[in-house]
Amino acid sequence: MAMQRIFDNVLHKNVECYVDNLVVKLKKRKDHLYDLRKVFERLKRYQLKMDPSKWAFGVTSEKFLGFIIRQRGIEIDQANIDAILRMPEPRNIHELKSLQGKLAYH
């Protein structure tokens, strides 16, 4: 079952999901434990496992899929902007397609 369907009613409110990556975000610290509990209950209900080495709790900012998530919002990681600016200008259709693929990643 797709993660988007499992977390459908909370996505973009307090949970962000991409493939099998989750971020539980909060506006108020007191609500965070409640939100985490709901996420863990749902993971358990669908028998989904998580890798504890990838967990990060109580962080005020974190890199997530090329973005930096902070309390004030989501920002593009400057390293990705710099990588795009360093890319050479395409000289033919093959290089243009290659550039499109790289831009889709960043």
Automatic annotation (TrEMBL):
<dbReference type="InterPro" id="IPR043502">
    <property type="entry name" value="DNA/RNA_pol_sf"/>
</dbReference>
<dbReference type="InterPro" id="IPR043128">
    <property type="entry name" value="Rev_trsase/Diguanyl_cyclase"/>
</dbReference>
<dbReference type="InterPro" id="IPR050951">
    <property type="entry name" value="Retrovirus_Pol_polyprotein"/>
</dbReference>
<feature type="domain" description="Reverse transcriptase">
    <location>
        <begin position="2"/>
        <end position="69"/>
    </location>
</feature>
<protein>
    <recommendedName>
        <fullName>Reverse transcriptase domain-containing protein</fullName>
    </recommendedName>
</protein>
<dbReference type="Pfam" id="PF00078">
    <property type="entry name" value="RVT_1"/>
</dbReference>
<dbReference type="InterPro" id="IPR000477">
    <property type="entry name" value="RT_dom"/>
</dbReference>
